[in-house]
Amino acid sequence: MSLSVSIIGFGAFGQLVARHLRDHARVVICDPALRSNDLSSVDLTGAAGCDIVILAVPLSQMQGVLGAIAPHLRPGALVADVASVKLRPAQMMRDLLPDHVQILATHPLFGPESARDGIAGHRIAWCPLRGRGHLRLARFLRGLGLRVIPTTPDDHDREMAVVQGLTHLIARGLADLGAGSSRLGTASYQRLIEAAAMVQSDSPELLRTILTENPHAAAIRQKFLRGAAGAAI
């Protein structure tokens, strides 16, 4: 895969992306606060000049980044995001990016913690929005062992309102209770604690995105809380 790839945002997930792409493409990074020891750093204009541009920034920064790179994107370039919600990023990319670029909305269903032993077998939600460049990228990722799951931004957010929204809600509740391993813990309780621990290290920005930026999350959350309250009567 002899392509140039820029990763805008070099936090924990951007570093994970770089680690798995660097042997297959020329990778550069763009982050005002973080640097790599051995990957070139570029500004937003330089990042926009690559064949594939990966947006690994918080959702709150995405609009500004899209506006900054839009005038500098080359015709045929593929711009992809990795946000945990899909409707809002998809709409922003459609609205702010020029017609001559391809657009792909993705959500890797793993993170640095769950993929610490490798990405093979993990899944990535795949929402092609414009162009066919995503087909080549999907083939490449399947070659790395990822399972590419086609979906739409709306279908993704509806499912993730349950899958991710409730997981983080429960994890936050358990953390507030100070729940942890117990000498009397059952197998099901221990699995619950382990699942909660996998997401408790996620950033506050990610938690806010999952719980407030998914338009389907509030209704699911209220339904869950009503059911929990009814079960306690």
TrEMBL record:
Residues 3-233 form the Prephenate/arogenate dehydrogenase domain. GO terms for biological process: tyrosine biosynthetic process. GO terms for molecular function: NAD+ binding; prephenate dehydrogenase (NAD+) activity; prephenate dehydrogenase (NADP+) activity. It holds the Pfam family PDH_C. It comes from the Bacteria. The keyword Oxidoreductase applies. Transmembrane segments: none annotated. Keywords: Oxidoreductase. This is Prephenate dehydrogenase.
